[in-house]
Amino acid sequence: ALRKQIGDRKVIMALSGGVDSTVAATLIHRAIGDRLFGIFVDNGVLRKNEFESVLKTYATLGLNVKGVDARELFYDELAGQTEPEAKRKTIGRLFIETFQEEAKHIDGIGLLGQGTIYPDVIESVSVHGPSVTIKSHHNVGGLPDKMHLELVEPLRYLFKDEVRKVGRELGIPAEMIDRHPFPGPGLAIRILGEVTPEKVQLLQEADDIYVNALKQHHLYATVWQAGAILLPVKSVGVMGDERTYEFTVALRAVTSVDGMTADWAHLPYDFLANVSNEIINNVRGINRVVYDISSKPPATIEWE
User: Fold this and answer.
1) 144 and 4 share a domain?
2) Where is the domain boundary, 123, 145, 178?
3) 99, exposed or middle or buried, with CB in 10 Å at 0-12, 13-18, 19+?
4) How many angstroms separate the CA atoms of 50 and 17, rounded?
5) In angstroms, rounded to a whole number, what is the distance separating the alpha carbons of residues 217 and 253?
6) 143: pLDDT confidence band, cut at 50, 70 and 90?
7) Could you read off the pLDDT of 199-228 as tens digits, one per residue?
8) N or C: which terminal CB in the chain sees fewer CB atoms within 10 Å?
9) What percent of the chain lies above the pLDDT cut of 90?
10) Quick one: angle between helices 19-32 and 160-169, nearest 10?
11) By three-state DSSP, how is residue 136 classified?
12) Is residue 244 included in any domain, yes or no?
């Protein structure tokens, strides 16, 4: 079906390192080989070492992907922005601009590939009845309007668990398939308030400790999504004989089937205690760790 839709045209695709875009790209690649051109943008708000490790995985999968380091551009534009929706829109806009700039260097692009899955479609547009837009989704709307390209969306009617099944069939490595969902605007919506390179680094370190601990204790696969959130709150602490006045990090972990509703994950207390100690002892600038015990609804999975 993909070969039929695409014919002998070229397809360009923005990749995020997530399950959906990776599975969609691999399917399209199987159909048309190197006529698929992938672009992976480092927007400055990815997880720690994510840019390098994702590009490495794409290389192993044989995908034709170009990595673009656009961190400075994103940091400059995000400076001073505190509104969640404004941050999302800025990141979305810059992403489209960067992507278009790269697309100019490739001749004869006929289609735009996207990893849109069914819940994205429902949450962003009320296609099948009155599902109110909850928040602007990153890969639905935006790119297509600007690019004037026909869309190719091989996963449009699949739910996340179905996408993972397809990925396993395609032989995509487990660490890519079983990755938790990660928001398009990345860590920018897990840093409440203004995003700065310093805050990104703090959060990357804390998040990395948390996620690695989940994996080491075999808890990663039991939760749907997990991450750390940097709060715009400083509080007093004690380090040795010194008083500190530093940031607070909230840990979030939820269980869910499809992301539409979610319960907070009942992680073991001793596990949380260890993660808290490790973050506070290893990340200068954070002196307090809290755990989010809210479910969706009424709270969303992400804080912004």
Assistant:
1) yes
2) 178
3) buried
4) 8
5) 14
6) low
7) 999 999 999 999 999 999 999 999 999 999
8) N
9) 77
10) 40
11) coil
12) yes
**Of 263, 280, 277, which is closest to residue 224 (Cα–Cα)?**
263
Cα gap 194→83, rounded to integer Å = 8
Amino acid at residue number 43? N
So what's the pLDDT on residue 123? 66
Helix (H, G, I), strand (E, B) or coil at 15: strand
CA distances from 9 to 109, 152, 230 (A): 7, 12, 44
The residue range of the domain holding 41 is: 1-178
pTM, two decimal places: 0.85
With beta carbons less than 8 A apart as the criterion, state whether 302 and 262 touch: no
The CATH number of whichever domain residue 229 belongs to comes to 3.30.300.10
Instruction: Please check whether residue 227 is in contact with residue 191, taking contact to mean a CB–CB distance below 8 angstroms.
Output: no
Query: What is the Cα gyration radius of the chain?
Result: 20
Angle between helical axes of 71-78 and 84-103 (0-180°, round to 10): 150
pLDDT at 139 over 70: no
